[in-house]
Structure formats: structure tokens, C-alpha cells
What does this fold into?
Amino acid sequence: MITLNHYLILSAVLFAIGLFGVLSKRNAIVILMSVELMLNGVNVAMVAFSRYIVPQMLTGQVFAIFIMLVAAAEAAVALAIIITIYRHRENIDITNINLMKW
Amino acid sequence: MALSIAFWVLAAVAVIAALGVMALRDVFRAALALILCFIAVAGIFVTLSADFLAAIQVLVYVGAVAILIVLGVMLTREVPHGNVSNRLVLPALLVAVVLVGVSVFVFTNPQTQWQISSAVPLAPTAGPLGLLLFDQDKYLLAVEIAPVLLLAVVLGAIALVREK
It folds into this structure.
């Protein structure tokens, strides 16, 4: 029998894998992919709560739709920034992009 | 029973594909693993009786975001190193493991009592979702702000990558 806990643990695992990628990768595009993984984990948790706690109200699903909207917007802007950086520096290694580092 | 099998298969595929994004050396293959993970998450949505959301997941993530990412990988093809890690691998691994451990501890703790409802979930969710989203007492304002955000994003992306 699959319960809410199964979905929440799956969501936590996806979120943690994404977090590991954001903290440890050097390629900017891989970091962007990790952020998308984290947002997917959050979506799984939202929909699972919606299914198991308020099955008739769809609240979590509406939130998940807005998360997807923001994720798509974020991916578009992030890729535009990455391509601009690549044009200027021929490189998208995050450890070398330290112009604004304090 | 069929739901349990579907959940375990889809969860395994999603987690293995997510680990593949971290482990594969070639960024392009990592992007393909990410697409597999998105599809598995869409299946997870189906097991949660969120059919409309599964369709949106396939359309937006598999259809749009994944294509954008693959395009980004191709436009930055000459980057020499591929999918490499920085010096923070061990601390990041520690943070991730601690996060999963704390989450599992909290979720499986007997003191954590979710108020599970036994009501039957809505079967086709597209109609009720539309009624919710376009109800002016619920989410209509957010739905009207969303296109403004998307317009700003499109203009910003074009302005960033435009040739001077």
C-alpha cells in the first residue's frame, strides 16, 4: 500500500539530488538542470499533499502549475544569461565566473 | 496493487535518472537522463490521479524546458571539461544525505500525523482546475499576472542574447 510518506520521501530524494548538483557542479547548464530537478521534487510533494489531504480541492495542483510556470521562465532567462556569458568568456565554468565575487 | 507496482517502477526510474544527471560525464547525456526523469515524474503524477498535471508536465518540461536545455548544451558545445565537479563534492554530499535523513526521520516519525482524508479524488481534474484558476475569488489574479511574467521573460531573454 502506497502512502503519503512514500511520495514525500521520493520528493525529498529528488530534492536532495538536485541540491547536491547545485552545490557541487561546475558547468552552469548542469546547475540549471539540478535546479529543475529540485523543482520537480517540490512538485511531487505538492501533488501528493493535494491527493492525500484535500483530495477534492486540488490546491496543491494549482500551486504545482504555478511552480511549473516559474520554472519555465527561470530556465529561459538562465539559458539566455549562460549563452551571454559563453559569448563573452568562451567558458561556462562557474568557478571561473567571479567578476561579481566579493 | 497495480498502483504500488507503478509507483515503485516510476520512483526507481526517476531516482536513477536523477542520479544519472549527476554521474554522466557528457552534459548532453545528462540532459537526456533529465528528460527521462521528467517523464517518470509525469507518471508519478498519474498515480496521484493528477492527469491534467501529468499532461502539463510532459508539455512544459519534456517539450519546452528540456529542448531549451539541449539547445543550451549544443550552443556551448566547445566547453572542454563536461560534467565536472568542484571542490565542494564531499560537503555537498553530506548536506544532501543529512537532508534526506532528516526528511525520512520526520516523515516516518509516529508523532507526525497527517490528516489523511479518505475522500475519493476528483477523476478528470482539467475541468475543476479550470474553474479554480478562473474563479475571481480564487486564483484569477495570479493567472492574470502570469502572462505579464512570461512577457517580461521573453523580452528579457531576447534582450540578453541579442547581437549588438
User: Anything to note?
Assistant: The longest helix of chain B spans residues 51-75. The helical segments of chain B are 2-23, 27-47, 51-75, 89-108, 126-133, 140-161.
